[in-house]
């Protein structure tokens, strides 16, 4: 009974009670609880000892009034839940990276889902109308000249993108990879294998990642002295089913290799190739991009560009929280490393090729 009474009383404690028990001022307790600076390690330790002993939990609503923070960040994914979980392992891995940071730093995560590109502006309007619910946003996928970026900058809402923005690039913090270089390296590997009729199934070209991977593909062909045939470039929308369909359109052009802008598109292309009675890699070599778990499990196992997706989400979340908490006010732009992972879809069991 005594322990129950203690817990009950602890719920009624306020900052003044904690301050009195710790022998410090109320403002000092507030700074400790909100993890602010200008508190000595010894004082912080004394206050936290009282907080833990008394089981004190600050009222979130009251704390948000004082700090003007909700300790909630939003993650914007402009695609439907069904598409995300059926067609890609990319977004779940990205979200896990975000959540690993927010959980460790005592923040919650609010997901904003889209349904279709046509409904995107409606989604963006809802986000802006309710931006007071969040301390900042991570844009998990953006489009060329994305209107949400313009709105966020105008309202001075903290945000980070996980792709290279095509507007206001010098003013925006983001974390990404060098998609042009990575794609160039992958296509050059196909050239090294003796492939000369290399087609590409691109991601959506209004997406910076999709566009930059197309640029890398073209750059590799130019450097190899190969003819750039635009009919060998086709949009797969980052979708398995779309890539499966458009691969059938490419087959009459007799490509001997495919560079796909994502693993799911590469897997869709391989299915179409095999259904046509052709062999991977003997007839057509295939390279994807992302290195999702299914890439190593496919038959044949897929050669792909390893994209550190979890780290992408993790770094983006850490950057955003540092911005929100005033730990870093400078624009940060982080390029993560990639690696070409060579598997059987290119006809070799070699180790990863170094850049």
Detailed description of the structure:
This protein has about 350 residues and is of the alpha/beta class. It folds into three domains: about 1-45, no CATH class; about 70-175 and about 310-335, Response regulator (Rossmann fold), CATH 3.40.50.2300; about 180-305 and about 340-345, 3-Layer(aba) Sandwich (Rossmann fold), CATH 3.40.50.2300. It is built from 15 helices and twelve strands. The chain has a six-stranded mixed beta sheet with strand order 7-6-8-9-10-12, with helices on both faces. A four-stranded parallel beta sheet has the order 2-1-3-4, covered by helices on one side. A two-stranded parallel sheet has the order 5-11. It is elongated, with a radius of gyration of 25 Å. The model is unreliable at about 1-10 and about 350-355 (pLDDT under 50).
The radius of gyration computed from the alpha-carbon positions, rounded to a whole number of angstroms, is 25 Å
| Helix/strand structural class | alpha/beta
Helix content: 40-55%
Order of helices and strands: HHHHHEHHEHEHEEHEHEHEHEHEHEE
Mean pLDDT metric? 86
Side by side, the strands of the main sheet go 7-6-8-9-10-12
Largest sheet: 6 strands, mixed
Shape: elongated
Extract low-pLDDT stretches. Answer: 1-11, 349-355
CATH architecture of the largest domain: 3-Layer(aba) Sandwich
Q: Work out the strand percent.
A: 5-15%
User: In CATH, what is the class of the largest domain?
Assistant: Alpha Beta
Number of domains: 3
Task: Give the name of the CATH superfamily of the largest domain.
Answer: Response regulator
Number of helices: 15
Distance between the termini: 67 Å
CATH topology heading of the largest domain: Rossmann fold
